Amino acid sequence: MRKKLGRRFHGIPRRLRELDRSLVLLATLRDMGWQRSITAGPVTASGSPLPWYSYPATAWLERRLRSSDRVFEFGAGHSTLWYASRVDSVVSVDHDETWVKRLQPDLPGNAGVRLARSDSYAKALDEESGDFDVIAVDGIKRNECAAAAGGRLAKGGLVVFDNSDRPENAEGVEALRRSGFQHIDFVGFTSGYATLTCTSVFFADGQRWLSAGVGEFLGW
């Protein structure tokens, strides 16, 4: 508790100019929906769903997804709705039965969420036919899921690995690297949280993903 309090007191502005800049920063975050996300889950200021990725990663993906894309997600949630409004189809799995039942009534026709047992979570991808343009690793068993994702991408496909900076996920990150994947790490804030996080994207062929950003700032 003392450590938490000390961290918060450390953030108190010490000068009027610092207070002014701090309030501008908070206003910018409010425009992004950051404060609203504290109670509503990851959303924009208007309440539209967002993935729980770092903000730069979400902005980068926003400009590069295609309406013809097929997406598979390990870990369902607001990201499922976000993808569904931008791509052809989304298939998501989650290990939490209560969460799955809660999500299903809100899904559009091009999205589906099903329960996957924790002891065979990564193998849930084997139950789907065809390859995917995007595979998101954002649930449990991330190291196993990352290893499975690399072999089920369509040509030029992308793996989105959330919280790739966490030590417990290092094995999955390294497995993708050893398989020849290049990657970009997007470090930044995420909806409703005050600490930095990293969402990484991995690709074997970056032509599609990098050429779309020519002339643009990498994150936006």
Features:
single chain, 220 residues, alpha/beta, Rossmann fold, 2 domains, 7-stranded mixed sheet, 9 helices, 21% strand, globular
Describe what you observe in this structure.
This protein has helices at 2-10, 16-32, 34-40, 55-62, 78-84, 97-103, 142-149, 170-178, 207-211, and strands spanning 70-74, 89-94, 111-115, 132-137, 153-162, 182-188, 197-203. With 220 residues, the protein is of the alpha/beta class. The chain folds into two domains: 2-32; 39-211, Vaccinia Virus protein VP39 (Rossmann fold), CATH 3.40.50. Strands 3-2-1-4-5-7-6 form a seven-stranded mixed beta sheet, with helices on both faces. The longest helix has 17 residues, at 16-32. It starts with a helix and ends in a 9-residue tail after the last helix. The relative contact order is 0.15.
Radius of gyration: 18 Å
Form type: globular
How many helix segments?
A: 9
Content-based structural category: alpha/beta
Show unreliable segments.
none
CATH class of the largest domain: Alpha Beta
SSE layout and pairings?
Blueprint: H1 2-10, H2 16-32, H3 34-40, H4 55-62, E1 70-74, H5 78-84, E2 89-94, H6 97-103, E3 111-115, E4 132-137, H7 142-149, E5 153-162, H8 170-178, E6 182-188, E7 197-203, H9 207-211
Parallel strand pairs: 1-2, 1-4, 2-3, 4-5
Antiparallel strand pairs: 5-7, 6-7
Helix pairs in contact: 7-8
